[in-house]
Design goal:
Layout (H helix, E strand, L loop, with lengths): L11 H12 L6 E7 L5 E8 L4 H15 L3 E7 L5 H11 L4 E9 L2 E4 L12 E2 L6 H8 L19 H13 L7 H13 L6 H10 L3 H10 L4 H13 L6 H13 L3 H14 L4 H10 L24
Parallel strand pairs: 3-4
Antiparallel strand pairs: 1-2, 1-3, 4-5, 5-6
Helix pairs in contact: 1-4, 2-3, 5-7, 6-7, 6-8, 9-10, 10-11, 10-12, 11-12
Length: about 325
């Protein structure tokens, strides 16, 4: 089967229809910055809540623009019309780092162009109706999903109490002498890549193996974002007891980021940090998620001797 042709954004309505599918959810009360490559591709985006200080939004967006190596950006505010001047100030500051080609505001089902003298919307705004836009159908055809809000992604990593209890019982029955952690990780990956789901005993052994430094590193290096990895780490994040969940949730976040699913990555990372606030793996993944690095440009796994921290801002 041939892949569908890329969607072409021809104006503000197309852009605003596309954004939820790129973020994975319909943004509200936020400032969204989309970065565009020289060939016209939307390469990545950044969404920050309206409550964030302007300087924070400008700094994060400027760093992301540099990392994305983009030619220009679009800035969209999702909030009340009283945000007009604020969005304008953010755009003026961001223009020092990257050319902002459009500034828009979405409020109560209408969108407004904030560029002085631009005729793309009337003064009273234009109706935003994504359901009538062909891009929505094109995105759905590609398998892109736009959930109602960012909060809905928490359900993907929400613990399954029954599964946690079964895994906890299996942990209690485990021998004090466990197999080599790397061997356990590799065996678990083999089962998952073949389409299998780990038994409670296998999930318990993997949970313990991921506490080991070598086991955790092996799993991280092997996680590139394939469907079976996505399923494995989300499944583990829901099944293991809280004391073991940080690494599976981190790996679910990494897999989601590699798959260009930033909202799911953020939800999984939050789950990991809640379970183990000071873990180094979460810190590194958080820096990657907020740096604007394009997953396609970060080789993974890294070559021996390479340092992930050295690639980060």
């Amino acid at each position: 089967m041939l892949d569908p042709a890329p969607s072409v954004v021809r104006g503000p309505a197309d852009l605003l229809t596309t954004i939820p599918y790129l973020l994975g959810y319909h943004p509200t009360d936020s400032v969204v910055v989309m970065f565009v490559a020289g060939d016209g591709r939307l390469v990545c985006g950044l969404s920050v809540g309206r409550e964030a200080p302007d300087e924070f939004i400008i700094t994060k967006s400027s760093i992301a623009a540099a990392r994305a190596d983009c030619s220009h950006a679009f800035v969209v505010g999702y909030g009340p019309l009283s945000d007009r001047e604020r969005i304008g100030g953010i755009v003026d500051a961001l223009n020092l780092a990257v050319t902002v080609a459009a500034r828009l505001l979405v409020d109560a089902g209408r969108y407004y162009c904030l560029t002085d003298g631009c005729p793309c919307t009337p003064e009273h705004g234009a109706v935003l109706d994504p359901s009538s836009n062909v891009i929505a159908a094109e995105m759905t055809l590609r398998g892109n999903v736009a959930l109602p809000s960012r909060d809905d992604f928490a359900a993907f990593v929400e613990p399954d109490p029954d599964a946690q209890a079964r895994t906890a019982a299996a942990l209690k029955l485990m021998s004090a002498h466990l197999p080599d952690a790397v061997a356990v990780v590799n065996a678990s990956l083999d089962i998952a890549s073949a389409g299998g789901r780990l038994s409670d005993e296998q999930a318990a052994r993997l949970a313990v193996a991921l506490i080991d430094d070598d086991g955790r590193s092996t799993a991280w290096r092997a996680t590139t974002g394939e469907d079976w990895q996505h399923d494995l780490w989300l499944d583990m994040a829901r099944r293991v007891p809280c004391d073991y969940v940080a690494t599976p949730a981190n790996l679910a976040a990494w897999s989601a980021w590699r798959r260009r699913e930033p909202a799911l990555a953020g939800a999984a990372l939050s789950h990991a940090v809640h379970a183990e606030p000071d873990n180094t793996m979460s810190h590194l993944i958080d820096v990657v998620l907020t740096s604007g690095i394009n997953p396609a440009t970060l080789p993974w796994p890294l070559k021996d001797g390479s340092d992930l921290e050295g690639l980060l801002p």
